[in-house]
Design goal:
- It contains 25 helices and 20 strands.
- An 8-stranded mixed sheet has the order 10-9-11-12-13-16-17-18, with helices on both faces. Strands 1-5-2-6-7-8 form a 6-stranded mixed sheet, sandwiched between helices.
């Protein structure tokens, strides 16, 4: 694959030699304007001319207009100035001369590829050598300064990154270039748009504006800025009433007219603009692309647009640059008549273009532009790019103040990149360095336009992650104007009280589709996200630990009853009914798993019916045992005749009847309860997050299932509550009474508490109620028997449980009772 790539590159480079002609170097100043030899070469990419006029098809360079882009031209001069200053610093690169080659990009992708290919050629040649491994490949340029914007950077970034050639941009601000997986060799001396967007959102929030319009130029800078601002504003609860793009490459006037109409329709007074040219009206929050752009600030009647707040890079003034350019131009004008009149082609060679050139344009443009704030500000970004490479080279060559120790040793671009990424240096007392993503440590200044004959750009704050606004720097009139719009700000909530807003393509506030919702000020609708009672939640873990302990305890009790199966206690207390109750308790504890995890249709169909049905098995067994005790204690005269029937068929008939009735109620509930998926689909959504649990519907059958179990416990309680304890016999009534009463009280309390709880706590409350009621049965009914089995085996006799086994009081007990009665009568007669 790499071989195929570079075959294509070599084809593109067939005519690259036409871009560099050593015979043109005559030693005079003008010939060295955009190229200077050195031990190491820096490549420069700058928009010096405006655009191309001939898209050549035979491989020769493209022709550019002769109209000079003075802004790009001055930045190219900054690179020349910076390199010369580096060479004049005896302690930075002692004994080494840094050279440079600057080429015009014409702001066109087809043009920028030609010098980019030249920079990739092998050192001191004009051809790219094809090889499998480029680790030891030395390129013509050790580093690249440029290009000027994100669109051009998108073209060259991956190309240079393939060779790991350091590329330091002075103007590409899109945040995508911070991705080191895509652009490993990219660095920049301007903050990314992401930081600027954060600052603009902070400013809008600071003044409490939450009903705004956002505009961007229809290029990569504007589109990316608009996209990032909209996302950040939505998270900050800022309503974006309108989003629009202003054409860059076509006539913008029709689009601007339509944009103005739209802004009037949505009645916004604050506009955030990511653009390089255009302004309309209202309160403006300007990006760095136009906040101090003189073509805008000097437009006729610009003072009528309202208040302008802008962002500009924090930088260092280059005091020596303006005198340098003035001196340079004096020398150029002295050579103009002799050199340029005789041979005008050499200048074209060093611009990287051929054909029409305009040397007169270069020497005749107004030098007063050097004093413009935009020039003074952005000159620093180019200067810092050159200085950062020089300091990285200083570290790589192990330089001291007097010599560079590794000057004879070869190095490669990836080695320089590593040093550059970790370089820091002082620039006029300001520390400059790159972070891990290649972004500089400089932030933004917040300015406002103060109107005089021309706008004066006045600093009112700073932003570098944190916003600080100096209120005293805002003039009284401007401050009242800002407060006016603060007090009249609208919110999306003002538009509708029943539906959540969405700003669609027609920029109207409309309701979300069924099943979706949006946050206030959001620009899109979303399906809600449901949370549920997770197994790892703290409450779930606590209940699971408690349930596990009780489940182990219930298993131990079951094993104990099986071990002592043939003893009087186990048989007298119900025999098989005890085992049925214990199995029901264990099943009830296991059924708590239905309340945990993500609910689904099957789980929700089983949750309430299954837990209620298991409880019915337990309580019907307890009721059957209660009937046996009632029979022998309340009807001793006839109990012996029918007791075997009561302990056998009658008890199991009670259990079977209760289970059948509860099964009918549970089936009714299942048939009438909707599927969870259907319930979610039909639910009116007015939220983005909610707790999801199995819905208890219909409530009537739910209450019947709980009520039926409550009835069983109440009957058990009533059957044993008033019975007398048999003389010298185990008190079985006590165990049943307390177990039934505790169960009944637990669920009576549960019902009113349940109705007042939130969705999440309802599930937890029901789990707690099941655990508590089961624990009461274990503690009240089974633990006393376990205590007797283990601690009082002498009482585990047929005589002590005779009344519950045979249905009659033992004869010895009757004789003692009769004897006691006779003795009492005798004492009364005496």
């Amino acid at each position: 694959m790499p071989g195929c790539l570079f075959i294509v590159l070599l084809i593109c480079l067939l005519d690259i030699s036409s871009m560099q002609n050593d015979s043109c170097i005559n030693g005079n100043l003008s010939a060295q304007l955009f190229s200077e030899p050195g031990d190491y070469i820096l490549g420069g990419l700058f928009p010096i001319y405006s655009s191309i006029i001939d898209m050549s098809t035979n491989g020769s360079p493209c022709l550019c207009f002769s109209s000079l882009n003075w802004y790009g031209f001055i930045r190219a001069l900054v690179m020349k100035f910076a390199v010369e200053e580096v060479n004049d610093m005896n302690d930075l690169l002692p004994g080494i001369r840094l050279g440079f080659e600057i080429f015009d990009t014409c702001m066109e992708s087809v043009v920028i590829m030609q010098p980019s290919m030249l920079f990739l050629s092998e050192q001191w040649t004009q051809a790219i050598r094809v090889q499998c491994n480029y680790t030891s490949y030395q390129t013509r340029a050790i580093a690249i300064v440029g290009p000027s914007n994100s669109e051009m950077m998108a073209i060259t970034g991956k190309l240079f990154s393939f060779f790991l050639i350091p590329q330091v941009s002075y103007g590409a601000t899109c945040d995508i270039f911070s991705n080191k997986n895509l652009y490993p060799s990219f660095l920049r001396t301007v903050p990314s748009d992401k930081l600027q967007v954060m600052g603009m959102v902070k400013v809008v929030s600071h003044f409490k504006w939450n009903w705004i319009a956002v505009l961007g130029s229809e290029d990569e800078y504007g589109k990316q800025g608009l996209r990032e601002f909209s996302n950040a504003a939505s998270q900050a609860s800022i309503c974006i009433a309108y989003e629009g793009l202003i054409p860059v490459y076509t006539d913008p006037r029709p689009a601007i007219s339509e944009i103005l109409d739209r802004i009037k329709q949505v009645e916004v007074e604050v506009v955030v603009l990511f653009s390089t040219r255009y302004a309309i009206s209202k309160v403006w929050v300007a990006s760095s692309g136009w906040s101090i752009y003189q073509d805008v600030s000097l437009l006729p009647n610009i003072q009528t647009v309202g208040t302008v707040l802008g962002f500009i890079y924090k930088g260092v003034q280059l005091g020596r640059f303006e005198p340098y350019v003035q001196k340079l131009y004096k020398q150029l004008k002295m050579e103009q008549k002799s050199s340029w009149s005789n041979d005008s082609s050499f200048l074209a060679e060093y611009f990287g273009v051929t054909g029409q050139v305009c040397p007169e344009c270069i020497c005749s443009f107004d030098l007063s532009v050097l004093s413009q704030p935009l020039v003074k500000l952005t000159a620093f970004t180019v200067y810092a790019a050159v200085l950062s490479v020089a300091h990285a080279l200083h570290r790589l060559l192990d330089c001291t103040a007097t010599r560079c120790k590794s000057v004879e040793q070869q190095f490669y671009s990836w080695q320089l990149l590593k040093q550059l990424q970790n370089t820091s240096f002082q620039l006029n007392g300001t520390l400059f360095q790159f972070d891990a993503n290649g972004n500089p440590n400089i932030g933004y200044e917040v300015i406002t336009w103060v109107w005089d004959d021309t706008p004066i750009f006045t600093k009112i704050g700073e932003f570098n992650g944190n916003l600080s606004i100096q209120s005293e720097s805002i003039q009284c009139g401007e401050e009242r104007y800002l407060e006016l719009y603060q007090n009249s700000a609208l919110s999306c909530g003002d538009l509708t009280t029943h539906t959540s807003p969405l700003f669609t393509d027609d920029f109207q506030c409309t309701a979300c589709p069924q099943g979706q919702w949006s946050l206030m000020s959001s620009t899109n609708c979303s399906y809600p996200v449901y949370t549920y009672l997770d197994w790892r939640d703290c409450a779930s873990v606590v209940l699971l630990l408690l349930t596990s302990a009780l489940l182990v305890g219930t298993t131990i009790v079951t094993m104990l009853f099986i071990k002592y199966w043939r003893t009087a206690l186990v048989q007298a207390s119900g025999g098989p009914l005890n085992i049925l109750m214990l199995l029901g308790l264990k099943a009830s504890f296991c059924s708590l798993a239905l309340f945990l995890g993500k609910p689904n249709d099957l789980v929700c169909r089983l949750q309430q019916p299954l837990t209620s049905f298991i409880s019915t098995v337990m309580m019907s067994s307890l009721l059957a045992t209660s009937l046996q005790v009632t029979c022998v204690t309340e009807f001793p005269g006839i109990a012996a005749s029918y007791y075997s029937l009561v302990r056998g068929v009658a008890s199991w008939l009670v259990v079977a009847l209760a289970v059948i009735l509860q099964a009918g109620i549970c089936s009714w509930h299942i048939l009438n309860s909707p599927l969870l998926s259907v319930w979610i689909a039909n639910k009116y959504v007015n939220f983005l997050t909610a707790f999801l649990r199995c819905q208890v519907d219909p409530m009537t059958t739910f209450c019947l299932m709980l009520g039926f179990n409550g009835l069983l416990s109440l009957l058990s309680f009533m059957g044993t509550f008033m019975t007398q304890k048999p003389t010298k016999q185990y008190n079985m009534s006590r165990d049943i009474t307390f177990a039934a009463l505790a169960y009944c009280i637990t669920w009576v309390i549960f019902i009113p508490v349940y109705t007042a709880l939130s969705e999440m706590t309802k599930s937890l409350a029901q789990m707690v109620a099941i655990i508590l009621s089961n624990s009461c049965i274990i503690a009240s009914y089974f633990l006393p028997k376990c205590h007797l089995l283990l601690s009082r085996p002498d009482l585990n006799t047929a005589e002590y449980f005779h009344i519950y086994i045979a249905g009659v009081t033992p004869k010895s007990t009757v004789d003692e009772s009769n004897g006691a009665s006779i003795a009492a009568r005798r004492r009364s007669k005496e």
